[in-house]
Amino acid sequence: MEYSETLVDKDDLNPPLLFVFGKDINSRQVYIKLKLKTEPTEYVLCVSFHYAEQVMSFPYT
Q1: How many C-beta atoms surround the C-beta of residue 28 within 10 A?
Q2: Radius of gyration, CA atoms only, the chain
Q3: Which long-range contacts does 8-16 make (Cβ < 8 Å, 24+ apart)?
Q4: In angstroms, rounded to a whole number, what is the distance separating the alpha carbons of residues 61 and 56?
Q5: Residues 6+ apart with CB under 8 A from 5
Q6: pLDDT in tens, 8-56
Q7: Hey, which residues does 7 pair with through a beta bridge?
Q8: This prediction's pTM
Q9: pLDDT (tens digit, 9 = 90+) per residue, 41-52?
């Protein structure tokens, strides 16, 4: 329910998908962008974490 959108990482030669989520914390919307990497090992990288600059939409709510 906190999923907002999927983007393509244009800064990477083998572009992985970027997953954007939003979370309400203390009545403010927080923007969270994650990258899933699989090489050389599997891990999740938090690319961006800040208060949302615009109102976010959530397609599954």
Answers
A1: 9
A2: 13
A3: 9/35, 9/47
A4: 12
A5: 20, 57, 59
A6: 988 877 778 899 999 999 999 999 999 988 878 899 999 999 999 999 9
A7: 18
A8: 0.86
A9: 899 999 999 999
